[in-house]
Amino acid sequence: MRNLEVTDPSQKKVKLGSLMLGQKVNKQVVLVNHCLLDLSFTLTLSTNTSLDPKDLSVSPAGELKLKSGGGSCKVEIQFSPHQHIPPFSAELQAKFAGFFHPLLTIEGCCKGVEVHLDSNHLSFGAVVQHCKTSRRIVMMNTGDASARFQWQTDFPPELSIKPVKGYICPGKDVPFEVTFAPLKPCNDLRYESLFCFIEGSPSVKLTVTGSCIQASTSKEVVNFACRVRSSQTQSLSITNPCSERCSIRPAIEGEQWSATLFLTFEPNQTKTFDITYRPLTMTPDGHKHVGSVFFSFPAGKGMLFSLQGTATPPKAKDTIMHELPAKTKHCEVLQVNNWLSRQQRFCVLLEVLKHEKTDPTVFLKGHDSIEVPALTKRDYKMSFFAYREGDYNTKVTFRNEVTGEYLFYLVNFKVRPPGVLSTIKLETPVRQMASAALNVENPLTTATSFITECKCGDIKAPPQQTVPGQSKGVLSFEYLPLHVGESTARLTLFSSDLGHFPYNLLLKALPPPTEETVHFQAALGNSHSTPVKFVNYSHLITKYHCKTDCPDFIVDKSVSASPGFPSGSEVRVEVRFEPHQLGEVKGQLSLTSETGGEYIFPLCGVCILPRPQGPFRITAGGSVTIPFKNVFRQTTTFSLQVDNPCFTVKAVNSIPSKKTQNILVSFEAPTGGPPGPWFGKMTICSQDSEVHSKPCSWVYYLKGQRPQSSLEA
Hints:
- The protein is mainly β.
- It is 1% helix and 61% strand.
- The chain is built from 1 helix and 58 strands.
- The strands form 15 sheets. A 5-stranded mixed β-sheet has the order 2-9-8-4-6, with no helix packed on it.
- The longest helix has 5 residues, at 708-712.
- It starts with a strand and ends with a helix.
- 25% of the residues are buried.
- The mean pLDDT is 88.
- This is HYDIN/VesB/CFA65-like Ig-like domain-containing protein.
- Pfam families: HYDIN_VesB_CFA65-like_Ig.
- It is found in: Cell projection, Cilium; Cytoplasm.
- Keywords: Cell projection, Cilium, Cytoplasm.
């Protein structure tokens, strides 16, 4: 029957591929009859494995008839697997009466998931109430496709399984831990048809059985008491009632208690078990923290202890002592711990203890709240400022307003008298004023007065200044030095409400500017007097010592001045210029006082040639006395000459320095001559060339006349 075949030779092998459950594939081939006879046959499948007709089918079914010489028909192959089918090979045959004729081969497979448990039933036996025990089951995938799995979410509260969901690969196993923790005593606990949903495969089911028995309870109640967030540890005596070695895990109820996780016992061994009470919340009056610890041994035996705890308020986190001067800002950093596994927000309360009312002269400042992340710590900064000395005890409380829990610090300050608040530099020439100002703050609600104190006489400040409540005032003061030099002084403001405010003054008095030069002019032998004026700024009656550095300038030894602080009082001192030689003379006048300081005036004198004097009138037969002073600094011999014989002069010896001698000049009228008058000139010359460098002479004009009676006759 080689003449019955597929029209397309490539279709002699039909590959259906690898399908997944729920997928479907159709293939179509055409059969043709090349025989000279008509053919009648049916189609049948011959496979190496058993296949369900629902999974692989061929149509049309029934008897087929093909005419000779090219009769043909279409054959449809449908593969729609409903189960896992390993790779297979099937042969499509034409069945004739008495024999089969192969037409083509069909290949394909269906990848599927075949998942089952190693045991569909778990028995836990008797378990003590509030204890738990675990068993293991294994899920196996014998298919050739991976699948996701997930156990039902509505497990009974006594049962739990891990993992709840996951992914299982072909040929792999997934172990599960099933935990049984019964809550109520019961002789028969049964949990049937616990489903695990398998992707692409029917669900698997599990049945769990067991029983719950009561534990033997210790009649003793273990009591604990400590401050909140501290701890207390107590020891319990535990005996293994079993005759076998075992490791147990104590079951602790109550978050305030903790202990070791495992205990290992030898048969019938007694051990000490330490359990710690560490409360994170305070217990209100009349209430206690309640808990228990249960020891579960094999064969359903156990031991239960009741626990009670009292948590009292916390003690101070720390007590801090500081000593500092008044009116000095102090910053304190406090560490705030968050003992919870969630963020906490603390409200901050700053208070001064042992004061019936708020002291407005003490300031505690800081933020109103602080947020601390879980199980960490943060720094909180606060500042302290006190105007007056004394002992101040403060308390800083950090409170969680939601839970009422808190922690606090005690910070004690010993405030001593204030140090220097600031240093003020002032610099000015003597007798010139410099000013400065201080800002004074009054934090009180009422006005207060500040009394000024400074022992330096060069500082002038108002004795008292009043500053209104909760405002700032400005205290201006002045520096008027009278002596050159550098010094320090202390300026203190005192308020009975706010205490002392000390300030340091660095004072520097520079030399004064040069005083105006005093000028003189006098002829040799004469003098010129001029008053020198200055201002006395001393606040006392002051005596100034006067002196010059040149003998040609003459001044009194001292002069008194009336008080002149701060505006000054004018003082006059007379200076006389008596030159001893021609030309310009320079000198310096010094006026010195211990309280008033020193004044220096430049002096400049000009000595000109002596001017003629006279005429001196002399009556005939008479004489006149002319005073003459030796202006030189040494004893000097002078010559006297007259140019008219009618006048005669008596010679003189040497004249001591700065001494005056009277020179006697006489006049005799000529007999019988004219009535007169007669004129003459007396010249006095220095004979000592060492005394002066240039010739110097003094001229005195003379006038002689007869007596009045003789003229009338």
